[in-house]
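Appendix C: a fully annotated inverse folding record. The material below is reproduced so that readers can follow the format used throughout the book. The structure is listed first as tokens, followed by the designed sequence.
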């Protein structure tokens, strides 16, 4: 029934008609590539007290290892509503049609899109009873539901359509897109099933393909792209096989074959500009995610770590450049003290691998946290060697007890087509409150990274310089960074003391030893007051 529904939906729905071009065409960009193929359970073992970071000096208790900020899911019983909502997708949904606002990248450079955490909630609908607007609110009153969603709900289909309409109408000459996972909603496990999860991933894959039929897409699996959620296996499965079939238009036979075995793959992106090939490595970092009980006590789940080292070694020998993509990021969560997103053991392994092959890796891209953040991988001598980016979510969902969420966001990267070094990042967002009030989606440019932070490009050295500027006491630049972190959700929210400590240490230190030193150092600075802090900062910056 549901599969028939999705087929009818996409057979009957044509891609949105082209609107008047509101954006100038980016002349000189690398051309579009045509396809040649078509409540939390936690078990992380960690050292140190894990606490999400408050906005004052304290950090509250968070447990061992953390899911994304929206992954807390109490039990419920709305399976029928969710199935009904999926069927309702068969009805016609109008695409958000407002012309994109704001400037766009000029660029005699390469460009690619990055989207993450779509989290479609098919049950979303406007009703006087705000406890029944969406299953993802888990019975809580939706705050101010409108056509494009609510901050207590996952994405209505209308919101996702508006994001893709904006991207399509921007006329940007993107070479490819990366999509870092999580299509199903945040609902209790009993309200989903393997069939529903597969249908939703298929729905999102078809939607992307209908909007961008000639664009190469490199996807990655998220922790919600499985049922039960988080429990991604180390061998082939019904979900892996179904998703592999959905992604055949984008991936080679070899990549598909690898994906079926463990949910990861690698594939070359061949450019007609660069003599150096770009290799995409799509990791299944969900195998290392703390709530994944399937992989507990497994040294190398699905042999992915050995496979990764082999691919990177071969890329080094062949003089390839590599972009690493995945869902759950490495490093420490910027909103939870002493807490890695993946189990600490795997984090240490990956940090070691990425340091070893840092000359090969030109960038790393993740999602999962729903927030906008950067990280700089330092080597053992604290020299910057890799740039990492965590993209904000399209879904605006938060838990009822959270003070903050994020506006929906999508982003466009610029890169040097000769060597794939990252040049800039254009972050776009939808002001959800304004969109619902006006009944139209007006996606806007939130910031251009180099201009916002006064750096030259997105290379590790530049991001490290940016990180040092953010670390300065009373930094107005950090205030801007935190506003971008929550995608302009609420400019009155500030991040100070313990909150800032978590942010600053997570940006610069990805391994246990250096991160712990940073936390202890920051606490000492706060304890001894601003005067001592300023002196220490001056000494540290001289050493850096």
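Designed amino acids, in order:
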């Amino acid at each position: 029934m549901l599969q028939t529904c999705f087929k009818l939906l996409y057979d009957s729905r044509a891609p949105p008609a082209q609107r008047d071009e509101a954006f100038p065409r980016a002349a000189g960009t690398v051309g579009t590539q045509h396809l040649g193929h078509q409540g939390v359970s936690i078990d992380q073992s960690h050292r140190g007290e894990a606490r999400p970071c408050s906005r004052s000096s304290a950090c509250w208790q968070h447990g061992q290892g953390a899911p994304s900020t929206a992954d807390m899911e109490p039990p419920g019983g709305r399976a029928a509503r969710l199935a009904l909502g999926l069927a309702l997708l068969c009805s016609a949904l109008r695409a958000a049609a407002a012309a994109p606002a704001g400037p766009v990248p000029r660029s005699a450079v390469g460009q690619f899109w990055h989207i993450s955490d779509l989290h479609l909630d098919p049950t979303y609908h406007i009703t006087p009873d705000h406890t029944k607007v969406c299953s993802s609110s888990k019975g809580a009153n939706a705050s101010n539901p409108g056509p494009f969603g609510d901050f207590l709900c996952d994405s209505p289909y209308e919101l996702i359509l508006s994001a893709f309409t904006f991207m399509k109408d921007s006329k940007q000459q993107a070479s490819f897109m990366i999509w870092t996972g999580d299509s199903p909603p945040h609902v209790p496990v009993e309200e989903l099933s393997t069939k529903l999860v597969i249908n939703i991933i298929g729905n999102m894959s078809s939607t992307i393909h209908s909007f961008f039929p000639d664009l190469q897409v490199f996807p990655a699996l998220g922790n919600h792209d499985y049922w039960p959620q988080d429990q991604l296996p180390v061998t082939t499965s019904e979900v892996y096989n179904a998703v592999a079939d959905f992604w055949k238009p984008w991936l080679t036979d070899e990549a598909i074959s690898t994906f079926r075995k463990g949910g990861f793959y690698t594939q070359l992106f061949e450019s007609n500009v660069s003599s150096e090939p770009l290799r995409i490595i799509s990791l299944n970092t969900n195998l290392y995610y703390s709530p994944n009980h399937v992989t507990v006590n497994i040294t190398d789940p699905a042999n992915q770590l050995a496979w990764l080292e082999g691919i990177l070694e071969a890329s080094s020998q062949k003089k390839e450049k590599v972009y690493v993509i995945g869902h759950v990021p490495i490093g420490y969560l910027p909103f939870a003290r002493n807490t890695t997103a993946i189990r600490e053991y795997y984090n240490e392994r990956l940090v070691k691998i990425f340091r070893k092959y840092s000359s090969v890796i030109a960038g790393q891209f993740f999602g999962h946290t729903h927030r906008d953040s950067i990280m700089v991988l330092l080597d053992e001598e604290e020299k910057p060697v890799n740039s990492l980016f965590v993209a904000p979510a399209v879904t605006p969902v938060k838990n009822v007890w959270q003070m903050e969420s994020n506006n929906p966001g999508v982003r466009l990267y610029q890169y040097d087509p000769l060597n794939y070094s990252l040049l800039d990042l254009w972050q776009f967002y939808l002001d959800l409150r304004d969109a619902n009030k006006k009944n139209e989606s007006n996606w806007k440019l939130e910031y251009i990274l180099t201009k916002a932070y006064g750096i030259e490009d997105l290379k590790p050295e530049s991001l490290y310089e940016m990180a040092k500027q953010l670390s300065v006491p009373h930094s107005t630049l950090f205030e801007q960074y935190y506003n971008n972190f929550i995608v302009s959700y609420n400019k009155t929210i500030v991040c100070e003391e313990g909150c800032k400590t978590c942010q600053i240490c997570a940006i610069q230190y990805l391994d246990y030893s250096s991160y712990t030193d940073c936390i202890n150092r920051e606490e000492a600075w706060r304890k001894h007051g601003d005067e001592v802090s300023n002196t220490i900062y001056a000494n540290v910056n001289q050493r850096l």
